[in-house]
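Work Package 3 (structural annotation) set out to generate three-dimensional models for the target panel prioritized at the project kickoff. During this period the team completed the workflow that converts sequence records into discrete structure tokens, so that structures can be stored uniformly alongside our sequence database. As a representative example, we reproduce one entry of 365 residues exactly as it appears in the project archive.
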Amino acid sequence: MQETEIIPFDKKRRRGRGATDNPGSRFESEARDFIDDGWSSTDAEQGPDRLKTSVTLERPKSIISRNMSPDLPFDRSVNAYRGCEHGCIYCYARPSHAYMNLSPGLDFESKLFAKPNAADLLAREISRPAYRCRPIALGTNTDPYQPIERDLKITRKIIEVLAQARHPFTITTKSDLVLRDIDILAPLANDNLVSVGISVTTLDNRLSRVMEPRASAPHKRLMAIETLSNAGIRTLVQASPIIPGLNDQELEQILSAARGKGADSAIYLLLRLPREVASLFENWLLEHFPDRASKVMKLVRSTRGGKDYDPEFGTRMVGTGPYAALINKRFQLACRQLGFSGSKYDLATNLFIKPGRDRRQMDLF
């Protein structure tokens, strides 16, 4: 009898993906392993099939998510998708896939969920009498311009609703696909109704390919900043996450490059490793950067009180300790020298008109 061999997701099958493994959901009562029992229909010489992306359509009953976090400058957000094909290994949203009984690993970047009724839900929710206008953040959990947006266009439909209602919103993305919608964004920018944040984590193409394999290349993100800025759209560079010992030495270069392309403000966030992200990230380090994996994790823990992650409000975004303080000082100094100013969420709210409302009708109160 042929012996059954337990094998992990090998490199050929997960080529173009970020995570190196696919641990089960923390809510699962059973664990599963992929095995090769010799009966595979795949040609042995070709190796196993490449992991393909699947998209499941879901129809939620509401679309605006609200938060009361003191660490966030917004209190509401909209996410058109669950999971993200960009495959960023450091993504703090990975653990949310466990709620779908899926893995925060490879499942998160290959088994996606789309919300085709998002725009209709949004129009309905902002039309309610009790609704009060404040900026809505797009792209807080997963990227609104990930590759499947090219065909599904859910994000575009969402911003069309917001544009018609003159509702302020922000966008956070790692994709130059945002330029597709510049025809909607540019007129809104004239009335201070939109701001776009482009996340630039590195200027090193090799590091970007292995760290965020399906996101736009660094030079394309800088080009997006330039194009948006030239169109009069307020553009912010997000140097995040800053990973001690891996990309932190690029902080000033990232900020300078973005400023040179027209970015008018900047933020940074320190690497966050909640729940399963810690082991996923460490395994990724061991495969791609074995020579410095130990050093990186040691530095990361030095900014989190000796732990992989500390979710404490007030410090979870920037960390604690001497190394975290040094990164913060470097960021503040660079911003002063480069002349960054303004806030991404300082947008106009007095132009809002509820969908379906007669623009000539004034409010009683």
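The mean pLDDT is 90.
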